[in-house]
Amino acid sequence: MDSGCVRLQEERRQQERQWRDEELEQYRRNRELDEVEEAQFQSYARDVIQHCEQRGRNTYPLRRAAAAGSRQVINNNVGWLDGWLVG
User: Fold this and answer.
1) Helices 3-54 and 60-68, axial angle in degrees (round to 10)
2) What are the tens digits of pLDDT across the range 24-47?
3) pLDDT tens across 65-76, in order?
4) 82: nearest Cα among 29, 27, 30, 25
5) Helix extents (H) in the chain
6) Are 34 and 71 in contact (CB under 8 A)?
7) Taking the model in full, what pTM does it have?
8) Using CA atoms in the order 37, 39, 42, 44, what is the torsion angle rounded to 10 degrees?
């Protein structure tokens, strides 16, 4: 191969590595934000459940929703990326 082709291939590899590194960093930041969001959700859910209990309301549906948490939705949306990162 001539040096021009080799140089282009190396540039392509570097671009692909840079793209993957950027994707991984964005994924990590999103996971951190997901954890903050989950904590906020659980705090809000506790407040709502406590408020409803004080007024004699049925809190079973609220407790089920809080147990599932917001992570259920998050994991369904980014689960494909977990497999990609391992592979």
Assistant:
1) 160
2) 999 999 999 999 999 999 999 999
3) 889 886 665 555
4) 27
5) 3-54, 60-68, 71-86
6) yes
7) 0.60
8) -70
